[in-house]
Amino acid sequence: MEQLVFNENLKIVTKVDNAIEYLKMFEPPDGYYLAFSGGKDSIVCHELLVLSGVKFDAHFSLTTVDPPEVIKFIKEEYPNVIIEYPKTSMWKLIEEKLMPPTRIVRYCCQELKEEGGNGRFVITGVRRAESVKRSKRKKIEYDAYGSQSKKAIEERQIFLNSDNDEKRRMVENCVIKGKNILNIILDWEDNEVWNFIKSRNLKYPFLYDKGYKRIGCIGCPMQGKNGMERDFKDFPKYKQNYIKAFDRMLKNRDSKGLVTKRWKTGQEAFDWWVGQS
Q: Within 10 A of 174 (CB to CB), how many other CB atoms are there?
């Protein structure tokens, strides 16, 4: 795999140059839509966009279960990032969906995080190294009704055949998302992300210095039981909010005549939810 390296002037080459080439090649007339989370990967994407000189606007999708430290970091260090407020909250979703969010049923991501950028060319910090599912992602994903057509993307792709990291076809159908997506750091490893951040003297949320590997929603099941338990130790108020939401969820189930054998209280639902993750 092509590695991130430094020359004598500490200028990052290879993957950085490759990313900038992609950003310039596919720049849409209305500019890119950067899906900005405040985490290390989106910080790198933001800096690559700045270095490339292309037009873009950055957006943070507030989920109502974001670490307060991350929101504060974004407001202080990235004041130009547009905060997108959700139509509902995690607590309301749990009550309405009649079940906790799980690794398989991720209604929270769909309704709180993935709505932004429709009709735009979206930049994400998705990386293959993060999970088995993400390892199957392509660098460029498109929707025929998005900001650029499949034909336009494939015509530009001809000029990028020298990219050794992308021997296979990189374009896949992304109809569900209704947008074009460029996963600009898809092949970057963790150490490459951190090397870039340090080489550019970029600031990042201090939660990483506390041992967090990934920063996202508090209590996200995708991080597993250990990660959830750590979250609720660090953010006890959110634990109580989840339990209260599960209590309302159970009452809503009762009002609809749904039989609930597994849990009788919000605490029992919470314990199951953390334990099965």
A: 19
Q: Are residues 154 and 24 located together in one domain of the fold?
A: yes
- Number of domains, the chain: 2
What integer best gives the mean pLDDT of the chain? 83
Residue 194's contacts (CB-CB under 8 Å, 6 or more residues apart) are 40
Phi and psi dihedrals of 83, rounded to 5? -90, 120
- 10 Å CB burial of residue 195 (0-12, 13-18, 19+) is middle
Report which residue type is found at 155: E
pLDDT, tens digit, 9 for 90 and up, residues 112-138: 887 788 888 999 999 987 655 545 556
Q: How far apart are CA 67 and CA 237, in angstroms?
A: 11
**pLDDT: is 157 or 236 the higher one?**
236
Domain boundary among 189, 210, 231: 210
- List, in order, residues 6 or more apart from 159 with CB less than 8 Å away: 25
C-alpha dihedral, 96 to 102 to 104 to 105, nearest 10°: 10
For the chain, how far is it from start to end, CA to CA, in angstroms? 32
Q: How confident is the model at residue 148 (pLDDT cuts 50, 70, 90)?
A: very low
Paired with 142 in beta bridges are 173
Residue 34 is encoded by which pair of tokens?
């950067």
**pTM (predicted TM-score):** 0.80
Helix or strand holding residue 229 (H, E): helix 224-234
Query: Last residue of some domain: 166, 182, 210?
Result: 210
Q: Report the share of the chain in percent with pLDDT over 70.
A: 77
